[in-house]
Design brief:
Elements lengths: L13 E5 L15 H6 L1 H7 L3 E4 L3 E2 L11 E5 L6 H13 L3 E6 L9 H7 L13 E2 L22 E5 L5 E6 L15 H15 L4 E4 L34 H13 L6 E4 L6 H5 L9 E2 L2 H5 L4 H18 L4 E3 L8 H4 L7 H6 L7 H17 L3 E5 L20 H5 L45 H5 L5 H14 L9 E2 L6 E6 L3 E6 L5 E2 L5 E5 L8 E2 L3 E6 L4
Parallel strand pairs: 1-2, 1-13, 2-5, 5-9, 9-10, 10-11, 12-13
Antiparallel strand pairs: 3-4, 6-8, 7-8, 14-15, 15-16, 16-20, 17-19, 18-20
The structure holds 1-deoxynojirimycin (NOJ).
């Protein structure tokens, strides 16, 4: 059972991201679902995570993997029923696992009742004021109201056909046309979302991951973007991280605080400046926010140290714990990123499909996991990273579902490569993901036969065994989780820090083994240490009894 008196659980939690469509299929239709997840709760408990975050499971036409919500109070039939979701919450709690669900406040689906009403109403009707409807520019209003681009490619505006059959107003969608942006300065919108929060909190969810948390407000003047980047938040940007956005969340925090046990938020906010990100975490606002700088960073000690330091500083200033993450359903899996010469996430998109040294990537991914779990704060695991899965970059074009593929005119393959269904057991696809005679919704590589959960459970040196051991130590060791770190002065190419009481974490980024400092015990290492006195390249060790 979960301990509902533990009000600080989220300051140190390790949370496992369940991308439901690809986790495990309970009804044999080739798509993962709630029933499948219910059956694997013991797997997650045994792995040793504290909680799970489930990607959107609401009713959806599935234009963007469920991030296009048609009804926030119901489950999509593809995933199950509301009763299944309620049963999952009870069972997860029985296994000691808390549950966060994904909330999508920036936009609805175009099939949402609000948008359908807006479409069937005339321009100027109050139902249109919940979204960004605008007349077009140019003669006849034939041009979009401004030059904003959709994150998935193409214009961020789509023109509607009015009731009289004529081409009419345009509406804003920062993502796909099936994801119209809500107008958060209309009081009806925040009021509705507070009710949605309560709907799920009443059913026992322990928190929410907030999709596009930094995008809710737009500059009402809708100025052209010109040369500014369309995906990165920069000061004064007309739609990312507007100054007034963080304060919107005080109302959400108040809703969460109405519940006696700690219900929490984690913001998905792609903001480069950690001090701007920390504004979302000021007292009375959100509890946590993903630190994407760490995820984007290349495998280089100097840069990583810089990111870690500046992130810790910015979070300490507002009293919030840092949330570390290496992968998620939107980025190239880190085994693949780290297996190339250029290891940053930005390069990973540019180098899509280029050769990868998977052995190197896996060694670094193991080292990165121990580094991450030793840092102060909480951490997220993206499903499959505990199995060491890499990005699947050779999916056949006809199988690609990410809207970015079509919207980019088939130039960006999108994010399907990190969303391939998990391999559970056996030696052939579908590897226990779905019924043996069913094709999973995305094809799995044959090479995954050595990476199944079944194969790894019996191997003490597997990635799964490393994750399990790390999480087990993390639960027990008083130095790990929330708190502070002190850097140890060591040679270049090595990151070394100490957490009190008495745990030292060292990662060797160089090409030669380095001597380990004196210590009494190696608590865990991401790879073999041979003589126990040398730390090989791309390896992390956790030591106890080491003098600084
Ligand atoms: C972020 C989500 O993680 C991503 O998958 C989605 O496409 C966009 N937000 C739009 O909702």
């Amino acid at each position: 059972m979960i301990d509902s008196t533990d009000h600080g659980w989220w300051r140190r939690a390790v949370i496992y991201q369940v991308y439901l469509r690809s986790f495990v299929d309970g009804d044999g239709d080739g798509v993962g679902d709630i029933d499948g997840l219910r059956g694997r709760l013991p797997y997650l408990r045994d792995l040793g995570v504290d909680a799970i975050w489930i990607n959107p499971w609401y009713r959806t036409p599935m234009v963007d993997g469920g991030y296009d919500v048609a009804d926030y109070r119901d489950i999509d039939p593809l995933f199950g029923t509301l009763a299944d979701a309620e049963a999952l919450l009870v069972e997860a709690h029985e296994h000691g696992l808390r549950v966060l669900v994904d909330l999508v406040p920036n936009h609805t689906s175009d099939r949402h009742a609000w948008f359908q009403t807006a479409l069937s109403s005339a321009p100027g009707d109050p139902s249109r004021a919940r979204y960004w409807f605008r007349p077009g520019a140019g003669p006849g209003g034939d041009l979009p109201p401004n030059d904003w681009r959709s994150v998935f490619g193409g214009p961020a505006w789509t023109r509607v056909t009015e009731r009289d059959g004529r081409a009419g107003e345009w509406y804003l969608h920062l993502f796909a046309p099936g994801q119209p942006d809500l107008k958060w300065d209309n009081p009806e919108v925040p009021a509705e979302f507070e009710l949605i929060l309560r709907f799920w909190l009443d059913r026992g969810v322990d928190g929410f991951r907030i999709d596009v948390a930094h995008g809710l407000l737009k500059d009402p003047a809708l100025p052209d973007l010109g040369e500014r980047p369309s995906t990165v938040a920069t000061a004064g940007h007309p739609y990312w991280d507007r100054d007034e956005v963080p304060a919107l969340y005080t109302a959400w925090r108040r809703v969460a605080e109405d519940y006696a046990d700690a219900r929490v938020f984690v913001a998905e906010a792609w903001i480069d400046d950690p001090h701007r990100l920390a504004r979302y975490l000021e007292p009375g606002r959100l509890h946590t926010a993903f630190n994407f700088d760490f995820l984007f960073c290349s495998w280089e000690p100097g840069r990583l140290r810089e990111v870690i330091e500046r992130t810790l500083r910015a979070h300490q200033a507002v009293g919030a714990p840092v949330t570390w993450v290496l992968s998620n359903h939107d980025v190239v899996r880190h085994v693949t990123r780290y297996g190339r010469c250029e290891t940053s996430m930005r390069e990973a998109r540019r180098q899509y499909g280029a050769p990868v040294d998977l052995e190197l990537g896996t060694r670094r991914a193991r080292a990165a996991a121990l580094l991450m779990f030793a840092l102060p704060g909480g951490a997220y695991i993206y499903q499959g990273e505990e199995l060491g899965l890499g990005e699947v970059e050779d999916l056949p074009e006809h199988s690609l579902r990410d809207p970015a593929w079509e919207r980019s005119g088939h130039t960006a393959r999108g994010r399907d490569g990190c969303r391939v269904p998990l391999p559970w057991s056996g030696t052939e696809a579908p590897f226990g993901f779905t019924a043996a005679d069913t094709a999973p919704w995305l094809p799995q590589p044959a090479a995954w036969k050595s990476l199944t959960a079944e194969a790894q459970a019996g191997d003490p040196y597997s990635m799964w065994a490393l994750y399990r051991a790390a999480l087990c130590i993390r639960r027990e060791h008083p130095a790990l989780g929330d708190g502070e770190l002190a850097w140890d002065e060591v040679v270049d190419d090595v990151l070394s820090f100490t957490r009190q009481p008495g745990l030292r974490c060292l990662t060797n980024f160089g090409v030669d083994p380095i001597p380990l400092p004196d210590h009494t015990e190696v608590l865990l290492a991401s790879g073999p240490l041979h003589t126990r006195r040398l730390l090989p390249p791309d390896t992390t060790a956790w030591l106890s009894g080491s003098q600084r």
